[in-house]
Amino acid sequence: MTTCFGYTRVSTLKQGEGASLEVQRDEIVRYAEKHGLTISRWFEEKETAAKAGRPIFNKVIQDLLKNKADGLIVHKIDRSARNFRDWAKIGELADSGVAIHFATESLDFQSRGGRLTADIQAVIASDYIRNLREEALKGIRGRLKQGLYPHMAPVGYLDQGGGKAKTPDPASAPLVKEAFELYGSRQHSIRSLCEEMARRGLRTRRGGFISRTGMENLLGNPFYCGVIKIRKTGETFQGVHEPLISTGLFQRVQQIKTGRYHVKVHRHVFTFKGLFQCARCDTRLIAERQKGRVYYRCHTSDCKTRCIREDDLDFGVRTRFAPFAFPDAKFERLKADVEQWYAARKVVLGTVQALNLRQAELHSRIEALTDALIDRLIDKETYASRKEKLMIESRTLQDRVVEIGKQDANATKLVKFLELVNSVTGLYPIVDPHEKRLLVELATSNRIVDGKNVELVPSEWLSTIQNAVGVLCGGPVRDTVRTFTPEQIEAFEALERICFIPEPTDPVQQLTRIFEKYCGTHSEKAGVKTSRRQSQHSPVLPDPAEGTALPQPVTKPNR
Questions:
Q1: Are 309 and 558 in contact (CB under 8 A)?
Q2: What values do phi and psi take at 9, rounded to 5?
Q3: Is residue 359 a contact partner of residue 398, using CB atoms and an 8 Å limit?
Q4: From its phi and psi, is residue 156 left (phi > 0), alpha (psi between -120 and 50) or beta?
């Protein structure tokens, strides 16, 4: 009695749920009964044959080489192998005396002609896989060029099916954004960030905690800022999915990861560490804690500046921040000037109704020009030249209509921007220590301590705003419509450059995040959010919708 192994295979687990394996088994049984063969054992595999290394196939080969059966029955040649290495193992079995049978192939594998035919079919099966792979890669590359990520969505996104962009996961997307912001603040190492995000509830797709390697990969994935990067080839594509973070934050995180910013977890976190210099010897003041108080000392031996307490330094900063706020009358005048500025722009651009009438007239002229070409009243060159001029004029009118629509929005945005700058003085006393430090870094450039005196120089962007406000509010108040001087026009343009053209590390965006944390968004009317550490004597910030800043009392701390 001749015993044989029966081997069936499909390429994926999903295919295994269908009827393919059952059909293969039936064909093998029918073939065995027809030729008087006995199936001693069945082997079933759900793995592609395009690559060598199938575990069950290798087990079949080992058992046959140990003479545990006389032969092997496979449904078809491509069910046994689709690569030359595995096909060579089939050939070695035949050379060692093992009978190889294919249930649906009318060939004799033991003969020279049958062996040649089988070899040719094996080559065709291998070429089919190569062609299939090329077509699949072509399709994947086409999706990438469209801005679609054809693989499984990373943590923070959800799959929407083939041909659709990934969408943010409402549960995990905010946590991923927080992970980037926390690491970008230089307050966490990778290890402490993993612990913090586990505490906040960030999980992998399988529900486990994110490991340090997983966190490294997450922070290094540009997918979260809208760029698709294929790790194997290094190619990048512009994605059409909604980004979770800005490119500026992503670049900052990469700089920290590569060591351009050294992240340390300090035992003592000092608010103004490394920010202030001694006015007499130009060295950094060193922060240290003595008897429960924080002091900033100049360690130059012959320098007369010795130390300043942190609460005195904090008082000096608050005092220097006070002039950053605009008086109520000046701020109201500034808002009126902004409204007049954009109203004047709308007059220059014209009315939407007049532009639409001109646009309709141009369309009529283009249609008449087309009719003239059809009637052969003009040649093609004349038609193309005149149509080009009309199309350019039409496009110019469309741009002007869009620009008119932006004027009201730009006026509102510029007023809110000035409110934000006006709020720096009121924000400083109530924010967290690391946010105090951020405010000082954003709003000032040179920070000097001379004895017990604190000197702050406003940052370039803040100086530009102060100078522009001084120019705009420097003239006498008139009830008539104001005519702006060239200097005032230049001041408005300077304000717009800062407000509407942010850089990757835009200080305005960072101030906005702090403002919204403590005061809510601009759309909130219910009042001001304050820190839990804010005492009943802390200054109260204005509602951002009101547009005026209440005076902030500054009192020197008691010793």
A1: no
A2: -155, 140
A3: yes
A4: left
What kind and span of H or E run contains 2?
A: strand 2-10
Residue from 313, 335, 331, 181 nearest 256 by CA? 181
Amino acid at 447: R
Q: Give me the mean pLDDT over the 140-159 stretch.
A: 85
Q: How is residue 54 written in tokens?
A: 């199938």
Residue 479, both tokens: 């009830």
Interval 154-184: pLDDT, tens: 999 998 887 888 999 999 999 999 999 999 8
Whole-number Å distance between alpha carbons of 519 and 424: 12
Q: List, in order, residues 6 or more apart from 365 with CB less than 8 Å away.
A: 390
Which position has the higher pLDDT, 5 or 399? 5
pLDDT score recorded for residue 498: 59
Cβ atoms 335, 298 nearer than 8 A: no
Q: Coil, strand, or helix at residue 7?
A: strand
Are the beta carbons of 461 and 442 closer than 8 angstroms?
no
Q: What is the Rg, in whole angstroms, of the alpha carbon atoms belonging to the chain?
A: 37
**pLDDT, tens digit (0-9, with 9 covering 90-100), for 32-47:** 988 889 999 999 998 8
Domains of the chain: 2-141 (3.40.50.1390), 157-257 (3.90.1750.20), 270-559 (no CATH)
Q: How many CB atoms lie within 10 A of CB 220?
A: 15
Spatial distance between the Cα atoms of 297 and 395, rounded to a whole number of angstroms: 64
Strand 277-278 versus strand 286-290 pairing type: unpaired
Judge whether 520 and 528 are in contact, CB under 8 Å. Answer: yes
Contacts of 150 (CB under 8 A, 6+ apart): 139, 140, 143, 144, 162
* Amino acid (one-letter) located at 498: I
Nearest Cα to 55, choosing from 65, 47, 66? 47
- The rounded distance, in Å, linking the Cα atoms of 221 and 227 is 9
Residue type, 478: R
Q: What pLDDT band is residue 558 in, cutting at 50, 70 and 90?
A: very low
Which residues, at least 6 apart from 436, have a Cβ–Cβ distance to it below 8 Å?
271, 314, 317, 428
Sign of CA dihedral 131, 133, 136, 137: negative
Residue type, position 297, single letter: R
Q: Which own/partner pairs from 13-20 qualify as long-range (CB within 8 Å, at least 24 positions apart)?
A: 13/46, 15/46, 16/46
Give the dihedral of Cα atoms 227, 231, 233, 239; nearest 10 deg. -20
Threshold 0.85, pTM exceeds: no
Instruction: Inform me whether the pLDDT recorded for 493 exceeds 80.
Output: no
**Would the pLDDT of 447 be above 60?**
yes
DSSP lists the bridge partners of residue 10 as: 46
Query: Residues 346, 407: contact at Cβ < 8 Å?
Result: yes
Report residue 531's pLDDT band, with 50, 70 and 90 as the boundaries. very low
In whole angstroms, how far apart are CA 497 and each of 234, 336, 424?
36, 20, 20
Residue 516 has a pLDDT of 60
* pLDDT mean across residues, the chain: 76
> Residue 303 to residues 282, 284, 324, 335, 455: CA-CA distances in angstroms?
10, 12, 32, 48, 18
- The 3-state DSSP class for residue 102 equals strand
